[in-house]
Amino acid sequence: MQNQYDEDTFFNMYKEIRHSPLSYNEIVEFPEIKRYMPDLNSKHVLDIGCGFGHLLKYMKIFEPASITGIDQSEKMISHCRADADLRDAMFIQEDILSLSSSDQYDFIISSLVFHYIEDFDLLSKKLYELLSGGGQLLFTIEHPIQTATVEKDLVMKDEQGIYARVDHYFKESIRDSHWSNGIIIKKYHHRIDTILNSLIQNGFQIEAVKDLGDAAEVFDYYSDERIHKLQTFPPFLLIKCRKVK
Fold it and tell me: Which helix (DSSP H) or strand (DSSP E) does residue 231 occupy?
């Protein structure tokens, strides 16, 4: 995983985006995460890529036995540790694949992190190790339709309207994501079958798969233009599964 989130320019830009009440995180993703969230009472919970702690704060409401956030970014962890609302949470600054711990969790959640990890099979093995027997995993990832293209512009427009460019879908490799101010974020494209089969082959039972982008909140809060763009392609994929072996 990369550490671009500790670069001042990107960190400040991302912070502004992430704290917007109309961000994709808040309107497209978070409402669906809440719908698929299991009972957390008295559970040991881990948030991978905890960022600014939005999910941690929400999950605390349900009185888990413990709650831990892990993030590779020093700035993100420092932000969370300074937040009075998270004073009872534990934090780890570490790449999840490098984490060496015998701790296990009843529930693991991750929001839009796993597309930064190249080896999805290795990730699945690590998640299996970290979960207790019967433990659940809930995560979102950038949709493979979104990460497939190697071209700069994903969304195109022709005489028939807006469409999404999908090319090189079967080529799993690193991709450049172009942000404003010339910032380029490195991420990895994984096929849908790679994601699901890696989980299944490493001891997970798939419980739910959801393309995100058509939640009721999208139609309540977004303009017609933004809704039309979302209806062109799903930006995120949600997967819920359970450790069964």
Answer: helix 224-232
